[in-house]
């Protein structure tokens, strides 16, 4: 299948096209099926933008603003681009670890890192995920996480 080839292509394109994003964009991570190398023929790219000091404070406006910055640089390259965003600090020290965040920690490939150490951070978190015995189960196209002991508070970070 085209999975791994598409992943290499996506990373190459993303790295050079997104290298000139504004300074408040601290990192860009690729997650989802393309990052996992299991994408089908469709190149649907999921990106997480980590920012600090972004000029737009309203979250909805900010996501629209960041999406626009990314979309104009990726014009015509991928079939669809999804952009989500969070403060860099929130990513490194989240109050709550959601299943989506767990997926991102497990799968994400670093596209842009202007902070240094994002890759190392992800490796550390993946080690913790393994130590804690968190398991991701695939159900059709969806994934869900199974905790080792039900309802136990998991200290991930």
From TrEMBL:
One Pfam family recorded for the sequence: NTP_transf_2
Under the heading SUPFAM superfamilies, the entry gives:
Nucleotidyltransferase (SSF81301)
Q: Which UniProt keywords apply?
A: Transferase
CDD domains, alphabetized: NT_KNTase_like
**GO MF annotation list:** nucleotidyltransferase activity
Query: Which residue intervals define the domain Polymerase nucleotidyl transferase in the entry?
Result: 11-60
This chain's protein is named Nucleotidyltransferase domain-containing protein
Which species is this UniProt entry from? Thermofilum pendens
Q: What is the lineage of its organism?
A: Archaea, Thermoproteota, Thermoprotei, Thermofilales, Thermofilaceae
